[in-house]
């Protein structure tokens, strides 16, 4: 039996304990003079095992607690937190938050989200799946994954395999009377390998992350995938500088969508630090493209009935027929912009980039996306932080494969890909049906009509 796994009943008891503590602290904050108060409390437990070359490198058991309190005295705000849930620490945290609030400047945008927006239906969305694996079993699984990968001819070394088990219990409560309880599990497997030939060494990896261990790909599949990706990079070349179409693999495409979210999020907008400032209602992507937030997917990595302020989540278009339908706002940024919150305090929930292409018809799988690319660059790795959300300038190191006539020709490395995000978003030719399920940003591969590729 796992040293980590919390039973169904034990998890519910712990949630109730956290909820009672949160409500008690809110009552005490109001008694201390706060006009509003909110509490976030969590208990996270985990097991992390790393093996390398068949030997155990690390075994880590974690149990982390957090308790954060924010109080409002009118429109003056004070926040404090502690990792210790005993009575003295909680009282000290409350005293500190109140002291901070009394001496801060008033902020017209501060305060809880409107009471009328609080979630009233609180389903769990099938997120709680404790993994009954003990340390010995986790070590054996990591060794098995690594053994599969190292068995491939040409693999010369390993950076190791990891097995991670995670469980999280959290409560958010505020002085509107809202109390939200959430519990979720997240487990992952990964393997990183090294291959070598006369031209040099290459490294690559693969991983899987799930809510329920029943949904993992097999150890055989993961080990094979990590080895195949690593071996495929042998003999990598550089490219001469050129402009060409570029296909982002699904995990790299996810980063492009992440830059879009950053540019339409409240903090960037009210600071006037976004290339998409004042673009709500405007066309920024092709007319066939839709992106929808779906917070209520079963076992979704970003599923939840409420956001970090208790506001009810709902299905909502972000991009509708290429038009930016709305921004991504919590109540603070919404007030700064004179807009309503979109229920995104704490971030986005399960953003689905719907597959499609300009010609309509059935979405392409990965091989179909390669054929649509024709001759150009497939990017499977992007490096560096060369993305400026203020101007939209995008320039990052990259590696991947040169594709000719819809077939992978050879691996490439030590190149830079560059364009402007405005042009990249408008120049999307297709989104594949090869959706990567390992994130709350759900997208297939994305084909861009052109980027500058700088190499030799």
Automatic annotation (TrEMBL):
It comes from the Bacteria. Residues 129-234 form the Metalloprotease TldD/E central domain. GO terms for molecular function: metallopeptidase activity. Gene3D superfamilies: PmbA/TldD superfamily. SUPFAM superfamilies: Putative modulator of DNA gyrase, PmbA/TldD (SSF111283). Residues 37-101 form the Metalloprotease TldD/E N-terminal domain. Keywords: Hydrolase, Metalloprotease, Protease. Residues 241-455 form the Metalloprotease TldD/E C-terminal domain. The keyword Hydrolase applies. Belongs to the peptidase U62 family. This is Metalloprotease PmbA. It comes from Dyella mobilis. The gene is pmbA.
């Amino acid at each position: 039996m796992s040293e980590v796994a919390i039973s169904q009943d034990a998890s519910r008891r712990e949630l109730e304990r956290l909820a009672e503590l949160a409500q008690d602290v809110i009552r005490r904050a109001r008694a201390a003079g706060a006009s509003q108060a909110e509490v976030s409390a969590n208990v996270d437990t985990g097991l992390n095992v790393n093996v390398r070359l068949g030997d155990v490198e690390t075994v880590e058991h974690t149990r982390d607690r957090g308790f954060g309190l924010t109080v409002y005295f009118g429109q003056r705000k004070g926040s404090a937190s502690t990792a210790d849930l005993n009575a003295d620490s909680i009282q000290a945290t409350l005293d500190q938050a109140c002291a901070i609030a009394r001496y801060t400047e008033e902020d017209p945008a501060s305060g809880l989200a409107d009471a009328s927006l609080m979630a009233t239906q609180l389903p769990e969305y099938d997120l709680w799946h404790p993994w009954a694996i003990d340390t010995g079993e986790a070590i054996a699984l990591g060794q098995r994954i690594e053994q599969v990968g190292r068995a491939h001819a040409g693999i010369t070394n390993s950076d190791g395999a990891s097995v991670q088990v995670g469980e999280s219990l959290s409560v958010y409560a505020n002085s509107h009377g809202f109390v939200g309880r959430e519990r979720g599990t997240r487990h992952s497997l990964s393997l990183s390998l090294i291959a070598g030939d006369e031209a040099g060494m290459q490294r690559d990896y693969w991983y899987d992350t799930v809510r329920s261990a029943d949904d993992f790909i097999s150890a055989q599949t993961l080990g094979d995938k990590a080895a195949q990706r690593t071996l495929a990079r042998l003999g990598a070349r550089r490219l001469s500088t050129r402009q060409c179409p570029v296909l982002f693999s699904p995990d790299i495409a996810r980063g492009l969508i992440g830059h879009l979210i950053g540019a339409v999020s409240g903090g960037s907008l009210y600071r006037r630090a976004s290339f998409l400032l004042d673009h709500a209602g405007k066309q920024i992507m092709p007319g066939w493209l839709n992106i929808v937030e779906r917070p209520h997917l079963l076992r979704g990595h970003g599923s939840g009935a409420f956001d970090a302020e208790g506001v009810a989540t709902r299905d909502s278009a972000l991009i509708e027929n290429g038009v930016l339908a709305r921004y991504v706002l919590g109540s603070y940024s919404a007030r700064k912009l004179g807009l309503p919150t979109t229920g995104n305090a704490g971030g986005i929930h399960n953003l689905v980039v719907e597959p499609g292409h300009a010609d309509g018809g059935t979405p392409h799988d990965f091989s179909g996306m390669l054929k649509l690319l024709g001759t150009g660059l497939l990017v499977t790795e992007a490096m560096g932080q060369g993305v400026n959300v203020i101007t939209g300038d995008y320039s990052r190191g990259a590696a991947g494969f040169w594709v000719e006539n819809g077939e992978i020709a050879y691996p490439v490395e030590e190149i830079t890909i560059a364009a402007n995000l405005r042009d990249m978003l408008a120049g999307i030719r297709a989104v594949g049906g090869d959706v990567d399920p390992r994130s709350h940003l759900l997208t297939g591969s994305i084909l861009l009509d052109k980027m500058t590729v700088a190499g030799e």
